[in-house]
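Schema walk-through. Below, the input block comes first and the output block second. Nothing else is stored per chain. Lengths vary across the set, and this one has 85 residues.
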Amino acid sequence: MVSFEYVLKDREGIHARPAGVIVKTAKEFESDITIENKGKKVNCKGIFAVMSLAAKCGEKVIISAEGNDEKEAVEALSSAFEKNL
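--- output ---
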């Protein structure tokens, strides 16, 4: 398993547009990918699950991937977070 932490910088947190980018990026990989905020962990491949976290600006999220392409998945998602959140 590979993971990284990210502190949200977007003043609106994870809203529809960045959630869509996260899901689209996660679906490119076969690994199981989760995102966690305040103790709640959800599947990164579901838009409603990601938005249900209601993660706000300044909060820390933890993204984890487990599977054959976990390293590539974490690298791609890290880049997506930097560009969109």
